[in-house]
Amino acid sequence: MGRLRSCRLLAAYAKKRDGFGSAGDLLEGGAFYLRFEPYRIVTDLIEDTKTALPKQAFSEIPPALLGREARSLGVPSVVPLRESSPVYRAIEAREALRHWSDGPVEKSDLLTILHSAYQGDAADWREEHEAGLDIGFVVYVSNVENVAPALYRYCPSRQELERAGAMEPGKLEHMVLQREFSLAPAIVVITGKLGAVLCRQGSSGHRQLLVRGGMAAQRMWLASLALGYGGCIFAGIVQKYLYETAKIDGYREMQLVAYAFGNLPQERR
Questions:
Q1: Pairing mode, if any, of strands 136-141 and 186-192?
Q2: Largest CB tally within 10 Å, which of 54, 94, 98, 208?
Q3: Where is the Nitroreductase domain (predicted)?
Q4: How far apart are CA 119 and CA 142, in angstroms?
């Protein structure tokens, strides 16, 4: 996307920011319908990325690189289990904090957030999902209601968490570069099938995965705000520990980005 095009989009947003509330986001059926001006930058990036991809696969994808079968296209939509506030209002009220409250994340909210991001990716990248190239979510749970602290994978077909491993108390602190992320009630690592994407699309497939990972994280952040939580997108888990705990090797499955979120303190500065 050219610099002039980007400047025009940003200028259009600047003109409309006083009326930002009238073009808010809605959380319907677990997915966001984003209608404010800056989102056009993201949709343009998605379209530019799709244009750069080859029309035919470079080579057949070995089944071992696909891992679990993608079943997102048959997943019914989810109605949020509690009413959310318009995202534009949450954005207007946001502030920077470095601490989480002791209150647990509701499991239904966690599943709604994951579903929103997954189904959004399936809608934007339908052909990739049909080819088995869906994204994945690995969730490190520390404080979620009715969910034992452990490592989980999100199953989109069941809309449920599947336990994938135990978590040693205090270990998460050494798995991230900033301690405050380790204290979050939940950390979601967004993953992609790098090896399979490279077979299908060549080196441009790596760029596609980065765009998809960033968009999934953005959807999670917006969903969290709408449900009353706070969160932060960050680089993710240190690769050594990511492999030790979740067996993510960086090729068959690659960490794209991560998202930490939870309840915020009632008393704020």
A1: antiparallel
A2: 208
A3: 92-261
A4: 25
Give the chain's domains with CATH numbers: 3-262 (3.40.109.10)
**DSSP string for 196-214:** HHHHHHTTHHHHHHHHHHH
Give yes or no for a contact between 115 and 157, defined as CB atoms under 8 angstroms apart. Answer: no
In degrees, rounded to 5, the angle at the alpha carbon of residue 20 between the alpha carbons of residues 116 and 259 is 35
Contact 196, 61 (CB under 8 A): yes
Other beta carbons within 10 Å of 239: 14
Residue pLDDT, tens place only, 84-116: 556 666 666 566 566 788 899 999 999 999 999
Orientation angle between helical segments 107-124 and 204-226, nearest 10 degrees: 140
pTM of the model: 0.72
Q: 162-169: long-range contacts (C-beta < 8 A, 24 or more apart)?
A: 164/138, 164/246, 165/245, 165/246, 167/140, 167/141, 167/142, 167/245
The b/e string for 47-75 (b: 16+ C-beta within 10 A; e otherwise) is eebeeebeeeeeeebeeebbbeebebeeb
Helix (H, G, I), strand (E, B) or coil at 228: coil
Instruction: Give buried/exposed letters for 113-134 (b at 16+ CB in 10 A, else e).
Output: bbbbbbbbbbebbeebbebbbb
